[in-house]
Every structure is written in structure tokens, then in C-alpha cells.
Amino acid sequence: MGPYDVQEIYRGRVSLVASARCKKSLQDIIIKAYIKSKLSTSMREMIFREIRLHGQMSGTPGLVEFLGWFEDEVQIVLILEHCEGGDLYRHLVLNGGQMSEENAVQ
After folding, report:
1. CA–CA separation, 2 vs 7, rounded Å?
2. Per-residue pLDDT for the chain (106 aa), expressed as one digit of tens each?
3. Helix or strand or coil: residue 94?
4. For 105, what's the count of Cα atoms within 13 Å in the CB-facing half-sphere?
5. Cβ(69)–Cβ(80) under 8 Å?
6. Residue 47 contacts residue 76 (beta carbons within 8 Å)
7. CA distances for 102 relative to 63, 90, 98, angstroms
8. Distance CA 34, CA 42 (A)
9. DSSP string over 9-76
10. How remote is the C-alpha of 48 from its chain's centroid?
């Protein structure tokens, strides 16, 4: 995919999440692509609300950094900081929905 090496992480009914590494800078990012034709009006509103909130909270310590977004005729794409340590949701599901404060800080 051009200047990025891309690896799919998740494919759902309405979206795709991929990890990408810039071949030149070696910066890792996450790409969330929503397929417009599969989105309800309320889901579109939710995505644009997410974009606005990310923009307002940019630079807040402890939050994933929002790097940008774009849309075309087919998709709405969010570009986010890549965080090490795996999938937080999966960790919570596997651990009864709980996480110690010590683990959360890591």
C-alpha cells in the first residue's frame, strides 16, 4: 500500500482495522476504515462524534493520539497512534471485565 506496510488486525461487518508502518519513517499507526454503504445514519453520526471528540482531546495524556481522518465515496478513515500491549477490550473480556490500576497504568 504505497509508502506503508499494512497488516489487517480486524474485519467486522462495517469496518476494518489495520496496523501500518511507514516505510520511510518507521512510524507505526492504526487505520480504522468504515464502509459507508454499510453504515446507518446513527452510526455515521457516532463516527463523526468520535472524530470531533478525538480532535478536542488531542494531546491529553493517557489517550490514544488522533493523527487525522479523511473520507471518500466509499469509506471514512481514522488514523490513530499505535499503542503497544495488545487489545484492551480482549484483555478485559478475558479477565472478567476488570483490570487493576497498576496494569491500567502500564
Report:
1. 13
2. 578 899 999 999 999 999 999 888 899 999 999 999 999 999 999 999 999 999 899 888 878 899 999 999 999 999 999 887 766 777 777 878 777 777 776 6
3. helix
4. 3
5. no
6. yes
7. 17, 18, 12
8. 13
9. EEE-SSEEEEEEEETTT--EEEEEEEEGGG--HHHHHHHHHHHHHHHHHTT-TTSPPEEEEEE-SSEE
10. 14
Specify the 3-state DSSP secondary structure of 98: coil
What letter represents residue 3's amino acid? P
Q: For the full predicted model, state whether its pTM sits above 0.90.
A: no
In 3D space, the residue among 37, 29, 46, 41 whose CA is nearest the CA of residue 13 turns out to be 37
The letter for the amino acid at 24 is K
| Cell numbers 457516532: residue | 46
Chain CA centroid to CA 81, Å: 8
* Cα–Cα distance, 5 to 20 (Å, whole number): 5
